[in-house]
Amino acid sequence: MTQQEKKQAEAIIRQPIILQDGGNHFESLEPKAGKKARLKVLSELYPDSELFRHWGEGLSESEQTEAQSLFMKFGYNVYLSDQLPLNRSFKDGRNPRCLEKMYPHQLPTVSVILTIMNEAMSVIQRAINSIIHRTPAHLLKELILVDDFSSNDELKENLGNQIQLYNFKYPKLLKLIRHTKRKGLTQARISGCKAAKADVVIVLDSHVEVNVGWVEPILARIQEDRTVVVSPMFGKIHFDTLEVEHYPLASIGFDWALWCLYDSVPESWFKLKDDTAPLKSPSIMGIFAADRQFLEEIGSLDKGMQVYGGENVELGLRVWQCGGKIEILPCSRIVHLERAFKPYAWNLGQFMRRNALRVAEVWLDNYKSMVYYYWNLPVENHGIDYGDVSSRKELRKKLNCRSFDWYLKNVYPSLKPIRNIVGYGTMKNTVDEMICLDQGPVSGKIPVMHICHGYETQAVFYFETGELYLGLLYDDRFSKNRCLVDPGQGSEPEIVTCSNVTRKGVHTHWDFKQGAAIINKDTKRCLEIQQDDTRSYTLILQECTGQVWNIQHIVQDWKNSQYRG
Ligand code: UDP
Ligand code: MN
């Protein structure tokens, strides 16, 4: 994978992926107002920098250099953040019906937890200020900052002082926990929850700002039912302009790689005809609120998670499978600074994969193989150390939790298992086993043979029904899977989006067995490779000459798997 591809892969992590629901209820999440008016401002010094695509007009060269270096350090526009007021208001994102709602004056108290790993001070201050000013003082018991061993000098020197300044004005409100080594965001959140004393804990990122009236709906809902784990609604603070943009209501789900995504709101919620009604959600994004003791009883967060990812889906599954609920409250909103990249680990995907396997092993029962397919790994002997999960398995037993099958049927029916995969991984031709079938450039439609590296572009999935998918596997909701086809004419195979294969004359089904030819079922042509003048191989469709292929992993015992049919 090239650096560029790596960057792209990282960039999609936890960025909102929207599943459309036929256009009935979903607004586009593209910013509307102001989009046209925005000028394309490319920096003279850094024409390729994302920072200057929509921002930075009129900056001198030295200002551009400063802004760019801060951007590379943090992944967002610290140069601008340092100039904006630390107290700012933004447009109330709530539905007007939320303003009519009355909440009890007596509500549970709250400990708000902010985890910090090399964030800019002005961004943290804006988060703190918004929480202090938009949370009723009699409810905000404490604000706990967990510094996950930041290396930035600014934080090392100044965070403690800043907290003292706040505490002059708001006695004992702010607390600081400093990790003496880097423990990752899950353990930072756990440290915050452990130290918390209020009835309810709300775990936030340190680059958020909260909307007016954000906390009352959360506390009132948890007061009504302590087994509800709540997510506020999200909006976005653009990483470059720091402008706030509110999102429409979405449910929070995930795909089989256990990457979270925004999912469509089910029809049943619209039928309630109440824009303020809680929305049941399969999972959380990471930010959540819970009754402190309830969270403790069900096992807090999984402290075996490393660096980033997995803990949110783990909590989602555990809450539902072990007797609680997850709800998104439309009247509670926060906005979150979406970074252009994460500055704290270049190899995040590796941690997400490892953490996803932990979740799969503990919570997914016999559906766990789906996660392995999506990460393109064999179910056994994959060589990835996902740590010790025995205590999490014991917890599941102790809490007498339901099966994942129950969860899929009752909580997340739109997450459909992909059935009938019989082989997956890289596909090699015995003529030269150094090269692998590869989807080629993502925008292209011509598959290629490429030196084997085993990354996503070389993932192949062969189905019992004869389809051959190339590249990352998506679930069917995305209509993004790419099928290898015989176009019926010419000698080049093509790639088409699998949901578009109705095009006339395109042949999608192949006969294949391990160590045998790949033969198109309709045209009877074989997929073979041919050496060209430059001594590299190209793929061709031709009358079979006896070339044979091998796929990396064969699915054992698929026919007997319990979730078939
Ligand atoms: N964080 C942390 N330790 C880490 C990585 C992140 O404490 O090793 C903090 C980070 O500063 C942020 C929160 O955890 O406040 C969530 O991380 P991030 O914002 O990168 O996740 P995202 O919002 O992109 O999912
Ligand atoms: Mn974040």
Give your account of this protein's structure.
The two termini are 36 Å apart. This protein folds into 3 domains: 11-40 and 75-86 and 104-339 and 401-416, Spore Coat Polysaccharide Biosynthesis Protein SpsA, Chain A; 350-400, no CATH class; 421-564, Trefoil (Acidic Fibroblast Growth Factor, subunit A), CATH 2.80.10. The chain is α+β, with helices and mostly antiparallel strands and 565 residues long. The protein has helices spanning 3-11, 61-74, 78-81, 96-99, 121-134, 153-169, 185-195, 215-224, 267-271, 292-297, 311-321, 348-363, 368-374, 390-398, 404-410; strands spanning 110-116, 140-147, 174-178, 200-205, 208-210, 228-237, 244-246, 251-254, 260-263, 279-280, 288-291, 325-337, 421-429, 432-438, 448-451, 460-463, 468-470, 482-485, 494-497, 510-511, 519-520, 526-531, 537-542, 549-554. Strands 13, 14, 15, 16, 17, 18, 19 and 24 form an 8-stranded antiparallel beta sheet that branches. It is built from 15 helices and 24 strands. The longest helix has 17 residues, at 153-169. Uridine-5'-diphosphate is lined by residues 14, 115-117, 119, 148, 182, 184-185, 188, 205-206, 286, 307-308, 342, 344.
List keywords for this structure.
565 residues; 24 strands; 15 helices; Spore Coat Polysaccharide Biosynthesis Protein SpsA, Chain A; 25% helix; eight-stranded antiparallel sheet; binds manganese (II) ion; Trefoil (Acidic Fibroblast Growth Factor, subunit A); alpha+beta; 3 domains; disordered N terminus; binds uridine-5'-diphosphate; five-stranded mixed sheet
